[in-house]
Specification:
Helix content is 30%, strand content 21%. The chain has three helices and seven strands, in the order αααβββββββ. Helix 1 packs antiparallel against helix 2. The longest helix is centred in the N-terminal third of the chain and has 29 residues. The radius of gyration is 28 Å and the shape is elongated.
């Protein structure tokens, strides 16, 4: 930033404050190397002050740059990739698994692979080879327990991730007998 004084005419905080905080942190880190509890606490305090100055300086650079990556790089800051958006159609849920619970419980444990962009998971079930409507059960986790099923009947199950776009993309169905 010192070599680009035309771009960064009046940094806030001043670069001298940054240099002072950096020198104090380095000195405190050297003292803390001997494992003195007081020196370690001082190092933590100096680090906190340095981080605060860097954050404030980054706000100044961000304001001056107005989204221009070349100006951000000229200030000595790194560019980060923008957050990946999960706004499109969700991928197909992978590997749905249905595991029967204890005998006589009428429960099935459903699982699918996690997906980072999932806000919820939509698990559906119905009697196998029937034309009945699918019954949905939402879960915030990649697994759920479906209760109240008829014992010794075969059910089919499928799953979908629920993302920003609520359009479902169901997995292939899997089946299991309820015990």
């Amino acid at each position: 930033m010192t070599s680009e004084s035309t771009l960064f005419a009046s940094p806030s905080p001043e670069l001298s404050e940054l240099e002072t905080a950096l020198a104090e942190f380095r000195n405190s880190a050297t003292e803390a190397a001997y494992r003195d509890t007081r020196a370690i606490m001082i190092r933590k305090q100096k680090r906190k002050e340095l981080v605060y100055i860097l954050k404030e300086l980054s706000k100044y650079v961000d304001t001056i740059a107005n989204g221009d990556g070349t100006i951000i790089l000229a200030a000595g800051f790194m560019l980060y990739k923008p957050n990946q958006s999960y706004s499109g159609l969700v991928p197909k849920a992978q590997r749905p698994v249905a595991e029967p619970s204890q005998i006589g419980s009428g429960r099935i444990i459903l699982r699918t692979n996690r997906w980072v962009g999932a806000r919820m998971y939509d698990f559906q079930y119905r009697l196998k080879n029937s034309t009945d409507e699918w019954v949905s059960q939402l879960s915030s986790k990649s697994s759920c327990i479906v209760e109240g099923l008829e014992a010794f009947k075969e059910y089919e199950f499928r799953a979908s991730y629920v993302g920003i776009d609520p359009t479902p993309n169901y997995s292939a169905s899997t089946s299991s007998y309820v015990l």
